[in-house]
Design a protein that fits this description.
This protein is α/β, with parallel strands linked by helices. It contains eleven helices and 13 strands. It starts with 6 loop residues before the first strand and ends with a helix. The chain binds 1-O-phosphono-alpha-D-glucopyranose.
Length: 289
C-alpha cells in the first residue's frame, strides 16, 4: 500500500527575470492567463489530484500570493451587495479552507533543491508532490493526477517528463531510462542541464514530481550543482541509489509561463479552450493575423 499524496510544495520564489518588468511588482506566478493568475490553474490541477495542503515557498515581496488565497471582505461584500454572484463565485473558487495553505520564506535564492528543503517541517514523513508553477499544463486528465495514478501503480518516486524541443535539452533536467515501453518507465539516471551532446535522452523533467520524504536529509547536505545552485535533481540522483524512480511521459501540453512567448501561448491556448470565450478569442486572434 502506498501512502496517499496529500501535500504539495510550490516553489514560487524567484525574480521572474524573463517576464520583467511584468513581474516587478506582481509575483511572476500571479501573472494572468486569460482572467486568472497562473497559480489558480495550478492549484486547481493539484486539487483534482487529491492535494489538500499547499506549501508555497516564497521570497520577499510576494505577500500578494497569500492575499490572493485569502478572503477579501471588501471585494466580496461589494459583489454581494450588487448581486454579482457569478463573479463572486469565481473570486471565491480558489480559496482553501483555513489551515490548508502554508507560506514559507526561502530567505535566499539558493536553488530549487533548497526551496523544496524549506518545506521539510510542514511535509513531515509522508510522500508529497512538487509543482513548478511556471510550467502550466493543459491536459484532459490533469497532469498531477496522471502522476498520482502512476504513483499508486508503482510507488516510489515519479517524475513527469516530456520530449525537449530540438537543441534545448541543456536548459532542463534530463532523465535516463531503463528501456522504454509505454509512458511509464523506470529511470536509471538524471542530470541537471547537461551540456549539449551529453544528454542521456531527450526527455526533460517538466515540473511535476511525487517524492518520498527521504529526499529531505539529502537536500540538507546537497552541495551546489549546475549554475552554482542547490539542485533538486542532484539529490534525486542520490535518492535513486536507494529507491525506485519512474518517469511518466504525461499526456498533455506544457506552457512555460516564465517566458514571454510561453505566457502568450498559454493565454491563447487557454482562451481557445474556454467554452465561454473560445469564439470571441478566435475572432480576435484571426483579426490580428
Ligand atoms: C528546474 C529543474 C529542471 C526542470 C525545469 C523545468 O530548472 O531544475 O530539472 O527541467 O525546472 O522547468 P529551472 O527552470 O529552475 O532552471
Amino acid at each position: 500500500m502506498t501512502k496517499r499524496v496529500r501535500k504539495a510544495v510550490l516553489p514560487v520564489a524567484g525574480l521572474g527575470t524573463r517576464v520583467l518588468p511584468g513581474a516587478k511588482t506582481t509575483p511572476k506566478n500571479l501573472l494572468n492567463v486569460v482572467d486568472r493568475p497562473i497559480l489558480s490553474y495550478v492549484v486547481e490541477e493539484a486539487r483534482a489530484a487529491g492535494i489538500e495542503h499547499f506549501v508555497f515557498i516564497t521570497s520577499r515581496g510576494q505577500g500578494a500570493i497569500e492575499d490572493y488565497f485569502d478572503a477579501n471582505p471588501e471585494i466580496e461584500g461589494a459583489l454581494e451587495a450588487k448581486g454579482r454572484t457569478a463573479i463572486l463565485e469565481d473570486v471565491r473558487r480558489d480559496l482553501g479552507k483555513p489551515g490548508q495553505m502554508s507560506f514559507v520564506r526561502q530567505m535566499a535564492p539558493l536553488g530549487l533543491g533548497h526551496a523544496v528543503w524549506c518545506a521539510r517541517d510542514i511535509i513531515g514523513d509522508e510522500p508529497f508532490a512538487v509543482i513548478l508553477p511556471d510550467m502550466l499544463m493543459m491536459a484532459k486528465t490533469p497532469a498531477l493526477a496522471q502522476c498520482v495514478a502512476a504513483y499508486e501503480k508503482v510507488g516510489g518516486n515519479i517524475i513527469a517528463v516530456e520530449p525537449a524541443p530540438e537543441g534545448e535539452t541543456h536548459k532542463y533536467g534530463i532523465v535516463a531510462l531503463d528501456g522504454q515501453d509505454g509512458r511509464l518507465n523506470r529511470m536509471v539516471g538524471m542530470v541537471e542541464k547537461p551540456p549539449l551532446g551529453t544528454e542521456p535522452s531527450n526527455l526533460f523533467i517538466s515540473g511535476r514530481y511525487i517524492l518520498q520524504p527521504d529526499i529531505f536529509p539529502l537536500l540538507e547536505n546537497q552541495g551546489k550543482g549546475a549554475g552554482g545552485e542547490i539542485q533538486l535533481t542532484d539529490s534525486m540522483v542520490e535518492l535513486m541509489k536507494a529507491q525506485d524512480f519512474h518517469a511518466l511521459e504525461y499526456e498533455g501540453t506544457t506552457y512555460d509561463c516564465g517566458d514571454k512567448i510561453g505566457l502568450l501561448r498559454a493565454n491563447v491556448a487557454f482562451a481557445l479552450a474556454r467554452p465561454d470565450l473560445a469564439d470571441a478569442a478566435r475572432a480576435a486572434i484571426t483579426a490580428l493575423l
